[in-house]
Amino acid sequence: MSSQETPEENLPSEQESAHGAVAVAKTGEHADPFADPGLPPHEHRVQDIDEKAARRSERTVALLFTVSMLSTIGFIASFVAFPVDKSVYLWPIGHISALNFALGMTLGLALFCIGAGAVHWARTLMSDVEVADERHPIEAEPEVKAKVLADFAQGAKESQLGRRKLIRNTMFGALSLVPLSGVVLLRDLGPLPEDKLRHTLWAKGKLLVNMNTNEPLRPSDVAVGSLTFAKPEGLEEHDHDFQTQIAKAALMIVRLQPDDIKDKRELAWSHEGIVAYSKICTHVGCPISLYEQQTHHVLCPCHQSTFDLSDGARVIFGPAGHALPQLRIGVNDEGYLEALGDFEEPVGPAFWERG
């Protein structure tokens, strides 16, 4: 748009044009259209002039930090107090996990109180004097470095961290306890193993139950040269931990001629030539399922580890490093095969070398 097309009301008046010309003539340069308005007068807070108000703010900040510490302790205690399968009804959400609700509320409150305490401390007790500073080059001069250090020292002094010991101590307590929440969260990586890998469901008096018929086994049910798989009495497929338990307690039953058993302990732990060994291969834990009747060898189908059941189930071929654990068995008063205890050593792939 040309100057001829500019609306008349948007053009500067003759008086304004003359005033601008005079200003340029006097100063020799154009006037700054963005003049520095300066800072408004500083208004003191009530905490700056009333020590009682300052102490009230100090106690408020300390209270928030203390609540944060208690919440962190509550977060840790929730892992012990609430079972993982417990649920509570919370309107209007409905049924939720009590553990998750407790963890979320306590950790959220701990973090909120630290933040709220820091904000309240800064707004009521730390210095709020407005400071204007000119921009400076990116490269710091020695004078600038000295000024930064001096400003930091002044800020530390004005924060009253040394004077307000109650705030300082409670803040350090809150900041020290909050990281413990992260340590406790490691608990969710999985259940603690304790000594569970060293034990199975087998115990004295537990009947040997046929995996196929789900019936207790009698000696007459196990023919010479046959291979039978068994599980402990009371373990059912619909149990929530069935896979976990059967992975340790799976048993294979073989009947040999007593004269064919070479190992003395194997013979003592058997019943009329019936021997019970763990079905879990000691290489990588595959289930053993192949049996050679003539040689009394069992073969793991995964990596061809071969065990001699007539000689303590020792390894005769393959990568397995240990013999199969044997279960000591007998017969109860009703004529059923029963365990006389648990395995003497952990089942599975060379666990005893690590534990």
TrEMBL record:
Subcellular location: Cell membrane
Pfam families named among the record's database cross-references: QcrA_N, Rieske
InterPro entries given in the database record: QcrA_N, Rieske_2Fe-2S, Rieske_2Fe-2S_sf, Rieske_Fe-S_prot
Domain of life: Bacteria
SUPFAM superfamilies with a match to the protein in the record: ISP domain (SSF50022)
Segments crossing the lipid bilayer: 61-84, 96-119
Membrane-topology annotation of the record: Multi-pass membrane protein
Start and end residues of each stretch annotated as Disordered: 1-23
GO CC terms, sorted: plasma membrane
Annotated GO MF terms: 2 iron, 2 sulfur cluster binding; metal ion binding; monooxygenase activity; oxidoreductase activity, acting on paired donors, with incorporation or reduction of molecular oxygen
Rieske domain sequence ranges: 243-338
Keyword terms of this UniProt record: 2Fe-2S, Cell membrane, Disulfide bond, Electron transport, Iron, Iron-sulfur, Membrane, Metal-binding, Oxidoreductase, Respiratory chain, Transmembrane, Transmembrane helix, Transport
Transmembrane keyword on record: yes
Main location: membrane
Family the entry assigns: Belongs to the Rieske iron-sulfur protein family.
PANTHER family: CYTOCHROME B-C1 COMPLEX SUBUNIT RIESKE, MITOCHONDRIAL (PTHR10134)
Complex formation: The cytochrome bc1 complex is composed of a cytochrome b (QcrB), the Rieske iron-sulfur protein (QcrA) and a diheme cytochrome c (QcrC) subunit.
Designated name of the protein: Cytochrome bc1 complex Rieske iron-sulfur subunit
